[in-house]
Amino acid sequence: MQREDRVPRVDWPRKVEELGFYFHTMDGVYWDERACYRFSAEEVDRLEAATGELQSRCIDAVGRVIERGDYERFHIPEAFHALIERSWNDDEKSLYGRFDLSWDGTGEPKMLEYNADTPTALLEASVVQWYWLQDVFPRHDQFNSIHEKLIDRWKDMRGQLPASGRVHFSCDSGSAEDQGNLDYLRDTATQAGLAARPIDIGEIGWDGKRFVDESDEPIQALFKLYPWEWLVREEFGPHLLANQMRVIEPPWKMLLSNKAILPVLWEMFPDHPNLLAASFEPGKFATDFVKKPIYSREGANVSINSRGEIIEAPGEYGEEGFIWQAYHALPTFSGNHTVIGSWIVGEEPAGIGIREDDTPITRNSSRFVPHYFV
Amino acid sequence: MKKSARVTLVLIGLATLAGCGEDDQRRDVYASREDCLADWGNKPEDCTPATDQRHASRGYYYGPYYGYHSTGSGSTWTRSSSSRSIGHSYSGGSHSSGTTRGGFGSSGRSSSG
Q1: Bridge partners (DSSP) listed for residue A224
Q2: What is the mean pLDDT of residues A266-284?
Q3: Do B95 and A216 touch (CB under 8 A)?
Q4: Is the predicted pLDDT of residue B70 greater than 50, yes or no?
Q5: % of chain A exceeding 70 in pLDDT
Q6: Do B1 and A141 touch (CB under 8 A)?
Q7: What's the gap in Å between the CA of A237 and the closest CA on chain B?
Q8: Between chain A and chain B, how many beta carbons pairs sit less than 8 Å apart?
Q9: Which pLDDT score is estimated for B15?
Q10: Residue in A closest to B61 by C-alpha
Q11: Do B18 and B70 touch, CB atoms closer than 8 A?
Q12: 8 Å CB contact between A218 and A75
């Protein structure tokens, strides 16, 4: 695993915008092809194996939480426990997720967390860096079959979706990034033969019996790029309990997108080579630990305590409590802190996207850097 | 090979196919009236206050609706997003009086993970 400096392609903004990637410059540089990462085939194999292993252990962990009814530590409202169990027992299929891994090409990749409900940086990982590869290293390979796996997964899920094939796709359209990711997913669903209709999250209606769209047509299946923990606590949340609408990601994903899954995994698989020690107890680690809110996104309210220094990211999370995780520093390449986002589509590893930041905490604005392997 | 053999887009970007999303129209959402006017030639009639609850509560503005057009090889949005717009709002039918809306979306932070 090496970082290489590159000269960006001439007219790269036009090239990426032609792919629907309009948010390439949010908060400064976001898509950053001034560099790239080079892997060996053996390194990619190791990443793929670790990602598959972690996915299997996470599924084990969900099974144990549900079997034991161990919801209290996840701070999920009690009314929704039955919905989680029903979706698990009905084997409602998941579309995707993204592990964040710390790895420098040596030793074992370590799981920092699992973005299992609303992972983003998808369009850039699946499409934009693929086209970059065609332009820059057309003879080399890339760990990235996300696009074709997404289309195949939608086809796999077809039997659990309405006979009409109609699926509504929703997010907060005030976020260009969320909208861009959602539009891309709608594209893959369309290619799988589904009728993928967009609707802003605030335009979803309730007619007293069912969820409806802007035309008052029933919403039978909803893909939402909007966190489960927000849905269940908002005004329409209780209507979800009627279970009349298939929701993607399924309700059981509430357990995996919750940081409480990290200590549960460590309880179940202590000393697992791809896991970091984690605890619900603040005193578990004397030094070198990370404190993470149970619900948190984009690194918000995460604090690192290492060598007597504390680095903390601001935010609005933490009301539901925290977990503590052993600190495993991100590797640095040319002064950049690098995290590997490793994608799962369905149950399979599908590819990676690499993010860099000037700080040890990966944030929403962390730069996306393409990769290839030989 | 571990990469996709082919990556083709049918709805977004420029490489689109005919017949997709034929029922869609959309309009750009702006954080301010000034951004909207700058995008639409300073024509006040093109920039209206947002009416859906979430956008309206933040004082956002809509640009005018636009749709797809057909080309020799397919169809695409008649306008690509500008850097000033912060998202899109899609067209829909009229609402019935018995339906309530706005019950989702109040948490209001980016959901990116």
Answers
A1: A170
A2: 95
A3: yes
A4: no
A5: 99
A6: yes
A7: 8
A8: 209
A9: 45
A10: A174
A11: yes
A12: no
Tell me if chain A has a CB within 8 Å of the CB of B3: yes
Interface of B with A in 32-71 (CB under 8 A): 52-55, 58, 60
Residue B107 touches partner A, C-beta closer than 8 Å:
yes
Residues of A in contact with B52 (CB under 8 A): 200, 202-203
Residue A294, helix vs strand vs coil? coil
Reading the block at residue A161, the tokens are 């979706």
- Contact status of B97 with chain A (Cβ, < 8 Å): no
Instruction: Kindly determine whether residue A20 and residue B90, on different chains, have CB atoms separated by under 8 Å.
Output: no
What's residue A287's pLDDT?
Answer: 82
CB-based contact B12 A19, cutoff 8 Å: yes
What is the SS3 string spanning chain A?
CEEEECCCCCCHHHHHHCCCCCCCCCCCCCECCCEEEEECHHHHHHHHHHHHHHHHHHHHHHHHHHHHCCCHHHCCCHHHHHHHHHHHHCCCCCCEEEEEEECCCCCCCEEEEEECCCCCCHHHHHHHHHHHHHHHCCCCECCECHHHHHHHHHHHHHHHCCCCCEEEEEECCCCHHHHHHHHHHHHHHHHCCCEEEEEEHHHCEECCCCEECCCCCECCEEEEECCHHHHCCCCCHHHHHHCCCEEECCCCHHHHCCCCHHHHHHHHCCCCCCCCCEECCHHHCCCCEEEEECCCCCCCCCEEEECCEEEECCCCCCCCCEEEEECCCCCEECCEEEEEEEEEECCEEEEEEEEEECCCCCCCCCEEECEEEC
B77 neighbourhood in chain A, CB within 8 Å: none
Helix (H) / strand (E) containing B39: helix B33-39
Q: At what angle do helices A41-68 and A81-89 cross, to 10 degrees?
A: 120
pLDDT number for residue B50: 87
| pLDDT band, very low/low/confident/very high, at A251 (cuts 50, 70, 90) | very high
DSSP letter string over A315-332? Answer: -S--TT-EEEEE--PPPE
Closest partner residue to A174 (CB to CB) among B9, B55, B96 is B55
Q: Please name the residues between 101 and 160 in chain A that touch chain B, using a CB distance below 8 Å.
A: 115, 117-121, 126-127, 130-131, 133, 141-148
pLDDT interval class at B55 (50, 70, 90): confident
Closest CA to A293 of A69, A74, A54, A57: A74
Q: Are A243 and A237 in contact (CB under 8 A)?
A: no
Mean pLDDT computed over every residue of chain A: 94
